[in-house]
Amino acid sequence: MPGIGAIGARCRHRPRRRPVHEWESGGEASRASGEGALETAIWSFQFRLIVLGDSTVGKSCLLHRFTEGRFPGPRHAEPTVGVDFFSRLLEIEPGKRIKLQLWDTAGQERFRSITRSYYRNSVGGLLVFDITNRSSFEHVYDWLDEGKMHAEPFQIVFILVGHKCDLETERQVSREEAEELASNCGMRYIETSAKDAINVEESFMILTRDIYELVKKGEISVRDGGKG
Amino acid sequence: MSQKDNESLKEDACEPDENDQKTEETEASEPDGVEPEPVAMTRKRPEAKTSEHVASQESLGHKEKILESSLSDGSQTGWNYWGSWGKSLLSTASVTVATVGYGISNVIEKAETSLGIPNSTELHSEAKDATEESQHFEEGNTHKGEAESLLPISGALGMLSTLSAAVQNTGKTVISGSLDALEFIGKKTMDVIAEGDPGFKKTKGLMNRNSTLSQILREAKQREEQQQISTDVSMATEKKSHYGLFFDEFQGLSHLEALEMLSRESESKVKSVMSSLSGEKLNILKVEVEQLKEAFSLAEFCDDEEEEKRDEEDFTKEITDLFFELHISTKPTKLTQARNSTCELVKSLRVQTVKADKPDEGDGQVDSGDAGQGDEKSVEDIHTLAIRSLAELTAYSIEVFHKAAELFLHGQKEEVLAVDRAKALSQMTIVLCKELSSLSKDFATCLTAAGMEEKADVLNPLITGVFLEASNSASYIQDAFQLLLPVLQISHIQSRTELTQF
């Protein structure tokens, strides 16, 4: 049952502070009873997103920009070891906050086997390539396959991210072909720049909203916080 | 606590029609079986109500309540404050049982082993039946059913930290649907628990099952978050001094979870390698694996008898040296930096308390805090800083262990024996725990000095809190350390295989 089934950590519903969801029609909404006040909860869902892509495409920078609002700069360029973590709240619609737990994986080949261990825990993924680096684009398929294979039996919602779009002059991958690849694989495509803060928020927002929609429809099952 | 929470929740309810809600609350428990609300409301629900429902209902939710009411007496009074270790021990139980989520048989097995109860086979096979049942059910309902049945359930979890919760959790997570199976298991597990462990004494032993540590912590964090919310509504300034929240903020939880994943993965690999061997080879390997295990049994680290306070360089050097012995390509910089800034913090707090006699001289403070009242730190501020520092150091320590695990498994091959790594790690654990203990003493000293004017009933809980969280921190670190054992075992097996074509 692809995409279905409760898995520990992928997607977590906020326990004990159930906001009243219009879609949890019937009993649920009314049951929220005395907990109505908790609609102001910090977050109502937690999504675990994994960030994949070749080494040096800027995954960590993207996450730094997204979570801390700053660009670490080239001098920060220590390659990630294994996996690092970031988290942030994202308000996808007024009053509806989602906590994103972001798994920043190492792009280096030697860590590939580590990151494999972590796919299964993610509900969504950002597949990042560098628009100025042709081969990072060509590897997107590999990452995608890997992600799909190791996430089995669950499904990861991916978005394709063309990074470093501030370097337009050095572009090696056209927007059109990236879009084509994305649509072939059923992903959205967005171009971002952590350096100039272009589309960083948007890329996470789009992905989070997409996942949220799937959760709403029940195509992704939710696991509560007590679990993992 | 529960009383208070209840009130504040009610008061703060943003919907005006409080009466409606109340009626809904009572109605809600009637129609469907997967009704999670009774559980979610545990803390708030008065006893009488519970038993009344029990009497009238047969549905799942109420089965659970039976369990709950029979168990909750002890649990609800004693362990209200998360900080108490006793509670988290119990949480382990709940969590241990609930972790799996893949098959009941597995869960039952776990519950059994945790509780040390014999007759496993019978239970096991029955559980399997139940699993099958539940699977049928789930398949039929997947698309629509999942969301509906799981969402409400999810609301209920996390709050449960008693053993009774274990029972509920088991059912809930595993078979989000099948009432019969659930009922059965609930009953069965209940019996099992009641028989095997009337006083919950054995729960302590569960702490060894550290595969679920992150869940304990998460539970704690959630509880804290909720508490915070309920107070937060009116007092945005009421800053959190909750360990779990800080711990998560520093990504300690994430690293711990990831470490657990690696540990579990390694554990099953070790098992499968072992089962593929026989005779001489197996015996050799067994001995070696056993040696590793020994290196992991921590020498009872004695709380240093007022050992002279070591200064910053010592700790940094010690950790760095030990880390070097691991032969991995990363450095514990974050950890040592955090530790050093904590020391700075303690120093500046000392300065403050010395200056406290002359309140007009209010400079030289750390400006990191949100004291909101000049530079002077109140005892609450100091307490918050202390808790925060402890959580930070613990989180970074666990990050270090996690990174180490990753590199043991997948780093470049090094000429280093797993046993030596184990020894270095064990030493490191001791150093870290000592450090935490010594820092907590420093913070307590600061608190005592700063709180001379305070009444004992204000000051004492704060100091106790610091010591408590320090000892919890040490436990977390030790548990995280234990998670490294399977990792080193498999890493040892791998390098051995490479050497000898084992």
UniProtKB/TrEMBL annotation, chain A:
It is a lipid-anchor. GO terms for molecular function: G protein activity; GTP binding; GTPase activity. One of its GO terms (cellular component) is autolysosome membrane. InterPro entries: P-loop_NTPase, Rab_GTPases_membrane_traffic, Small_GTP-bd, Small_GTPase. PROSITE patterns: RAB, RAS, RHO. Keywords: Autophagy, Cell membrane, Cytoplasmic vesicle, GTP-binding, Lipoprotein, Membrane, Methylation, Nucleotide-binding, Prenylation. Its main location: membrane. Pfam families: Ras (PF00071). Belongs to the small GTPase superfamily. Rab family. This is RAB39A, member RAS onco family.
From TrEMBL, chain B:
Residues 26-35 have a biased composition (Acidic residues). Keywords: Phosphoprotein. The keyword Phosphoprotein applies. Residues 1-62, 128-147, 356-376 are annotated as: Disordered. Residues 1-25 have a biased composition (Basic and acidic residues). The keyword Acyltransferase does not apply. It holds the Pfam family DUF719. InterPro entries: DUF719. Belongs to the FAM114 family. This is Family with sequence similarity 114 member A2. The lineage of its organism: Eukaryota, Metazoa, Chordata, Craniata, Vertebrata. The gene is FAM114A2.
